[in-house]
Amino acid sequence: MRGEGFSSLLFCLPNAESPVFEYTAIGKEKYGMEWMEVFVATSRDGLETVEGILYACGLTGLMIHDDRDFVEFLENPNREWDYVADELVEEKQEQVTGITFFLRNNLYGAEQLAQIRSALQQAKQMEGEWDLGSLELSVKNVAEEDWANNWKKYFKPFPVGDRLLIQPSWEPIPEQTDKVVLQIDPGHIFGTGTHETTQLCMELAEQYMQLGDRVLDIGCGSGILSIATLLLGAKEADAVDIDPNAISIAYENSDRNGIDRGRYHVQAGNILEDSRLQAAYSQKTYDLVMANIVADVVIALTKQVPSYIKDGGIFLCSGIITERREDVLAALQAAGFGVLDLREKTSWVAIAARYEG
């Protein structure tokens, strides 16, 4: 069943007139070392779903590698060529089906890569009977130890909203500030605060959270959003992410911000399918629920969040590309939420909605 669950996404495909097997060489020549060339391995049946996931993460230029294409090219009875180099045939016979895309080799590219990795992990856990392949990511053009750390030199302290200042754990604050300082080291997990989706969610949290609120952060990544709410006066926060590494990273970040672990609890798992997590969070009632993920997961969560939130509680959802805005709004309305606020930055949307039952 191809693409089910992500079928409402639009896809940006390569130019049909250009053979897909030429793109990698062109990309290397065009983009060089300033760009990371990233490949995600999938199956033939998984191509459409992975295209949708990457599109939902804000990518528009995708190079599709389907091992069937080269065979069809060779067997085309209307071919206008006489000879194909043996080296090319050998290379294409070894080619793995998947998708190549390019990211900047800087802070923003590292943030995008972490977001994509998280979205692919979510899809793999929801795979069921689909065959999505391994969904393994590989990076070319730059050594792994370089792309894992080079972005740090671009990550400097910066303000978000009216009250917060994001400080990388390895960077000093250049001058005195009256803002609430949030120290963060995201590791390889999504959440530096530089991505538009994170900033939008933090701005909305600053406006709609009340002192003493109880918060649930779904898809917490580095923990930046839930830690921000605790620094702004939340009483307690629970956080969950599909990536088990998020537990140690979020706790490390909460520790460096002086957050008592009695107020902050992080778990790993797929909240959409894990009945244990669903039962644990349903036993509590939250004033504020946040989800900075992708549109399809936000839409799925609209059916669950009413079990976790107080009547009149606030649901902040972000990670939504503008093309999916109406889909998310419709899902919120169907689940009993009334929209309070909608904000956009570049091609991203964040929504604050009140649960009205």
Set down the secondary structure blueprint.
Layout: H1 23-31, E1 35-41, H2 47-56, E2 63-65, H3 67-75, H4 86-93, E3 98-104, H5 107-125, E4 137-140, H6 144-147, E5 158-160, E6 164-168, E7 180-184, H7 196-208, E8 214-218, H8 224-231, E9 236-241, H9 245-256, E10 264-268, H10 275-282, E11 286-292, H11 295-301, E12 309-321, H12 325-334, E13 337-345, E14 348-355
Parallel strand pairs: 6-7, 8-9, 8-11, 9-10, 11-12
Antiparallel strand pairs: 1-3, 1-4, 2-3, 5-6, 12-14, 13-14
Helix pairs in contact: 7-8, 11-12
Please characterize this protein's 3D structure.
The protein has twelve helices and 14 strands. 42% of the residues are buried.
Quickly list its features:
single chain, 357 residues, alpha/beta, 7-stranded mixed beta sheet, 12 helices, 14 strands, disordered N terminus
**Mean pLDDT over all positions:** 83
The coarse silhouette is globular
Order of helices and strands: HEHEHHEHEHEEEHEHEHEHEHEHEE
Radius of gyration: 22 Å
What amount of the residues lies in strands? Answer: 15-25%
Number of helices: 12
Structural class call reads: alpha/beta
- Biggest sheet, spatial arrangement of strands: 10-9-8-11-12-14-13
- Main sheet characteristics: 7 strands, mixed
Helix content: 25-40%
End-to-end distance, in Å? 35 Å
- The low-confidence runs, each spanning 5 or more residues with pLDDT under 50, are 1-32, 70-75
The total count of strands amounts to: 14
